[in-house]
Backbone:
């Protein structure tokens, strides 16, 4: 059986082709893809021509929802026709942990869309689906497209958990792409006050519509003065840097309060240089904590979506069929007009 898939061939070269439909092992499921969002990491791979691993022709896509088409003999708790969302992992087999009998501690597992073929295709294989941990049935009433946004929400939940948000905290989110928008909503669900900083008018308007207490365009406002005024001089307890901009990172240091936190969420495409003065401010004068945020909290995301305390459907700004995948990627790269772009294989 053959299927349609978007193949990444090189930098900004992605094409829809007919390929062999993937077989499944006994610990895998085959999912018919109903919707798949374009993530920031997909965009980085599209620009480079490869993912974190250089592996030639490759299928991106990990923010997907779909219907189970086939189930391996060793997979329990699922049925053909189940509406599902989530991911699965295989250990890489080559790192220290894998070579020393600790595959579950592998720091660079292979997942659909990164190391394994992903979901910009009519079908995707999910290895070792962990029911209730990384793989879930879609809640009743949730559309395919909304379900496909649970993955970026899970990333946002992990970032918020890393920050240890407390009620009444003032948090600043630098960058209001999909992850930044989700972080703002997750922090509000925890009782924090949110300030969103973003130069794109469409993204700024969405952040305000979804409940941000304050929105700021960095091209029009002095961020240090604005945050100081909004916090009576206390500044931000946590700053989430979601843009991947070196300039934004330096702004994060300036607007964080003493003993505050910076959570680095965005991926940098340019070198981040930390001058001695900036390092002194971060570590000697302000005693800031800098945290990474790679990871997902699927359980938390599912609870927030199911309870409707977080809304992601309104962040979907564009939809494209698989045959127009290159146009979809170019649209996702344009922050002036898009937040989340969905690829719908079935249309």
Residues:
């Amino acid at each position: 059986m053959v299927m349609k898939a978007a193949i990444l061939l090189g930098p900004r070269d992605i094409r829809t082709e007919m390929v062999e439909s993937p077989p499944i092992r006994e610990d895998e499921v085959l999912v018919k893809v109903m919707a798949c969002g374009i993530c920031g990491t997909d965009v980085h791979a599209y620009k480079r021509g490869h993912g974190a691993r250089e592996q030639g022709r490759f299928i991106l896509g990990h923010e997907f929802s779909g219907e189970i088409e086939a189930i391996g003999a060793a997979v329990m708790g699922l049925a053909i026709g189940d509406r599902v969302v989530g991911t699965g992992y295989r250990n890489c087999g080559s790192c220290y942990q894998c070579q020393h009998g600790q595959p579950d501690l592998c720091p660079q597992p292979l997942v659909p869309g990164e190391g394994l073929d992903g979901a910009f295709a009519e079908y995707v294989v999910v290895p070792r689906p962990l029911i209730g941990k990384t793989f879930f049935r879609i809640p009743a009433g949730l559309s395919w497209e909304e379900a496909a946004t649970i993955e970026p929400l899970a990333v946002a939940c992990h970032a918020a958990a890393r920050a240890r948000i407390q009620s009444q905290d003032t948090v600043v989110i630098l960058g209001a792409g999909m992850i930044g928008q989700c972080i703002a909503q997750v922090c509000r669900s925890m009782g924090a006050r949110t300030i969103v900083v973003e130069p794109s008018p469409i993204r700024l308007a969405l952040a305000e519509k979804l409940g941000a207490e304050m929105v700021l365009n960095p091209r029009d406002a002095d961020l240090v003065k604005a945050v100081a005024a909004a916090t009576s001089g206390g500044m931000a307890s946590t700053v989430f840097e979601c843009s991947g901009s070196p300039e934004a990172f330096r702004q994060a240091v300036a607007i964080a309060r003493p003993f505050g936190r910076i959570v680095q969420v965005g991926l940098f495409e340019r070198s981040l240089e930390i001058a001695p003065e900036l390092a002194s401010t971060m570590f000697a004068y302000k005693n800031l904590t800098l945290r990474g945020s790679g990871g997902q909290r699927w359980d938390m995301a599912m609870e927030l979506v199911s309870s409707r305390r977080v809304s992601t459907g309104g962040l979907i700004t564009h939809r494209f069929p698989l045959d127009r995948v290159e146009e979809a990627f170019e649209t996702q790269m344009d922050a002036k007009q898009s937040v989340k772009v969905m690829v719908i294989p079935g249309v």
